[in-house]
Design goal:
It is a single chain. The chain is α/β, with parallel strands linked by helices. It has a single domain (3-348), classed as TIM Barrel (Alpha-Beta Barrel), CATH 3.20.20.210. The protein has 18 helices and 9 strands. The chain has helices at residues 3-8, 16-21, 42-48, 54-58, 61-74, 88-92, 113-118, 120-126, 128-140, 154-163, 170-178, 180-204, 221-241, 259-265, 279-285, 297-302, 305-318, 337-348; strands at residues 79-81, 97-100, 104-107, 146-152, 208-213, 248-252, 270-272, 290-295, 323-327. The strands form 2 sheets. It has a 7-stranded parallel β-sheet. A hairpin with a 3-residue loop joins β2 and β3. α11 crosses α12. It starts with a helix and ends with a helix. It binds coproporphyrinogen I. Coproporphyrinogen I binds at residues 34-39, 48, 54, 81, 83-87, 104-105, 150, 166, 212, 214, 330.
């Protein structure tokens, strides 16, 4: 093929998912689900028994690539998300991280900011297995399906580092007021580590990136601006300064009406909406960004006619603009697989 053919290649040979992120309105939106890998799939639970623990699973490219691909074999999703976890960065910065069976993540004592700042460069090296996973998945995935890399957003990752576990985040939110300099310094280290980690993922083959800000709720406007919007903008700028033009989705879950300020300030191309986002707020955002969301995972689990009606409603209310069909949070572990397949079929016709 002549080079001119490549240059003239029509934009619609791009994966549907990337076209939507480039702010195109399509005949049907692309679809993927947060937490689509693992959890609800029996083949995942089977694979999981082979790993010593969850963290080792994430650092094993063969197993992690398999877990990434499992939902792609079952469902007509337009994008895969690399199998990893937002808590790998704290581990790579020298904080102990482990998972208590049946309970969730646990983190050891928070290292000093200085010691973590010293380990930023090494942290990316310690996460190189995730790059290897990305290479394997990209080689195995059909070209019309995109591969998403991700990281936890600094504030959300900081909440786990400060609290030592999943929690109501009262200590972390108190720190935002009582020790703002300390929290800002921790977030600055995380911004730096995250830029390098995401750049490594892009180099390995990630075609889009998502920042999971799972705990953007309950923050006053000025604090939200300081610890959510600004660090996201710093990550976007850090990547752009490295010459990386990969589209980025920010998902500030629980931001409520502040999602509009977020979309205006973070510099992201896509904004993930949670289950509470109104049709109107989504339509306003679509003028400047691609929106993603926002089916309730509980409704996905419940199924039935109410699920079909809500899928149709989402397609109707947002399908006329740049839109990626997704959940408003992750797939719940005991969600019937038939419900996932049913929604994917309703959206894609496949
Ligand atoms: O034993 C197991 O199988 C562990 C379950 C599990 C899985 C499959 C955890 C533990 N993490 C993951 C993978 C994971 N985590 C992915 C992979 C790709 C996919 O989406 O399919 C992703 C994107 C994440 C991101 C993640 N981890 C978030 C952000 C999204 C969200 O759900 O809000 C968060 C908050 C975590 C922390 C975490 N990891 C695991 C658990 C149980 C938790 C939540 C802890 C809590 O309740 O606070």
């Amino acid at each position: 093929m002549a080079l001119s053919d490549t240059l003239d290649a029509p934009a619609d040979t791009q994966p549907r998912f990337l076209r939507a992120l480039a702010h195109e309105t399509l005949d049907r939106p692309p679809i993927w689900f947060m937490r689509q890998a693992g959890r609800s799939l029996p083949e995942y639970r089977q694979l999981r028994t082979r790993a010593q623990d969850f963290i080792s699973f994430c650092h094993d490219p063969e197993m992690a690539a398999e877990a990434t691909l499992q939902p792609m074999r079952r469902f007509p999703f337009d994008a895969a998300i690399v199998f990893a976890d937002i808590l790998l960065i704290p581990g790579a910065l020298g904080q102990r991280v482990w998972f208590e069976a049946g309970e969730g993540p646990r983190l050891g004592e928070l290292p000093s900011i200085e010691s973590m700042a010293d380990q930023v460069e090494a942290s990316t090296e310690r996460l190189s297995a995730i790059g290897e996973t990305i290479k394997r998945v990209r080689a195995a995935l059909e070209p019309e399906r995109a591969l998403i890399g991700f990281a936890g957003a600094p504030w959300t990752v900081a909440t786990y580092m400060i609290e030592g576990r999943g929690s109501d985040r009262v200590r972390a939110r108190t720190m935002a007021f009582a020790e703002p300099e300390k929290l800002d310094a921790l977030i600055a280290v995380l911004v730096d580590a995250t830029v390098r980690y995401l750049a490594m993922q892009v180099k390995a083959g990630a075609q889009a990136l998502q920042l999971f800000e799972s705990w953007a709720e309950l923050l006053p406007e000025d604090v939200f601006e300081r610890i959510v919007t600004r660090p996201h903008a710093a990550i976007v700028k850090g990547l752009r300064d490295l010459g990386i033009e990969t589209p980025i989705i920010g998902f500030p879950r629980g931001a409520g009406s502040l999602v509009e300020e977020y979309a205006a300030g973070a510099g992201v191309q896509g904004v993930g909406l949670d289950v509470q986002a109104s049709a109107a707020i989504g339509r306003r955002l679509q003028k400047s960004v691609t929106i993603q969301g926002a089916l309730d995972p509980l409704l996905l689990r419940a199924g039935g006619e109410a699920l079909d009606r809500r899928v149709d409603q989402l397609l109707e209310q947002w399908g006329g603009g740049p839109y990626i069909f997704n959940l408003g949070h992750g797939v719940i572990p005991d969600t019937p697989i038939e419900h996932i397949a049913r929604v994917a079929h309703r959206v894609t016709g496949r």
